[in-house]
Amino acid sequence: MDLNYTDSQKAFRQEVREWLAANVPSEPLKSFDTEEGFHQHREWEAKLNDGRWGMVTWPEELGGRGCDLIEWLIFEEEYYRANAPLRVNQNGIFLLGPTLMEYGTEEQKARFLPMMATGEEVWAQGWSEPGAGSDMAAIRSKAELVGDHYVINGQKTWSTRAVWADWTFGIFRTDPESSRHKGLTFILVPLDSEGVTVRPIEQLDGLPGFAEIFFDNVKVPVENVLGGEGQGWKVAMSTAGFERGLMLRSPARFQETARRLVELYKANKETADVDPIIGDAVMQAYLDAEAYTLSTYMTASRLLKGGKIGPESSTNKIFWSELDQKMHETAMSILSARAELLPCAPNADDVGKWLDGFLFAQAGPIYAGTNEIQRNIIAERMLGMPRA
Length: 388
Description:
Elements: H1 7-23, H2 35-50, H3 69-81, H4 90-103, H5 106-118, E1 123-126, E2 142-146, E3 149-156, E4 167-173, E5 184-190, E6 196-201, E7 210-221, H6 232-245, H7 251-267, H8 269-272, H9 276-304, H10 313-335, H11 351-361, H12 371-382
Parallel strand pairs: 1-4
Antiparallel strand pairs: 2-3, 3-7, 4-5, 6-7
Helix pairs in contact: 1-3, 3-7, 4-5, 4-6, 6-10, 7-9, 7-10, 9-10, 10-11, 10-12
């Protein structure tokens, strides 16, 4: 891995920086877990697409720039440095998009990717079910093939962005005699289909960031199957690899949090240094964010040479989720009693942003597969240890 940027990469960084400086909203958008904020973020996705920044790694004919993964990491670094809005369509562009590139037909790519890039179609994730949270092999929602369509019945829960999203992707049991990983099929479902009911679930902050999705004899055409019938587990594991290992949580996100943490510590150094552990925690957070960045660049370099994301993506997921928790816990310690101020409180200043981040970080070890499950994967598939 070459740690030096090429002239072309430096020029690309400058182009990204200049466009973002001219186009990032001067005032923060409302949370995309509100209806107004959701539509504001959808409009931002469209603006990004107008500049051909919607998803830079996609081919130009599908709305991208044909960039490689190193350029994507550069883009992410500049994106977070500019404090640009979070991506409301992250389930689509970061998870389903790469999966479509790998398993989709040419017709599916042409149909879904451009609409995803513009934000015209926002995607929800339909993995978990009651009784099948981190253990996706326990999925019971069924899809029965009837002629040229599937009839879906069942329930998904904790579906991110589903309240106002247009589509969901998930795996459904298409072989009623199957069990565990077999007999599952990856299907794309429009959420405005007859028989679909979406019920919001409140987060810790009271906003509906998740939803339950109920399927009651929902008809979906066979062309909405991704990767072939019965191949759902294989396709879903590819999507999970992107979620845990590279795309969903770029290192720039944690570098920016670490930078803000250092600034917070400096601004409150006199009171923070009453507890000598806090300074050490700030330094460790900064070092860990940089270490994760270097590790991700190494992974990207390996992928560019034809490598694959394997079970080691589980180590990434544990690392970034627990790093996020530690950074926000340290910020809470620095702020002391002020950490409890809501964003709307008088004199809250930037405290509310830290509180929001702290609350969200608690979900990190749970979503994308609980860290307990990830440790099982590491033990069995990377270390060759027997199942308990």
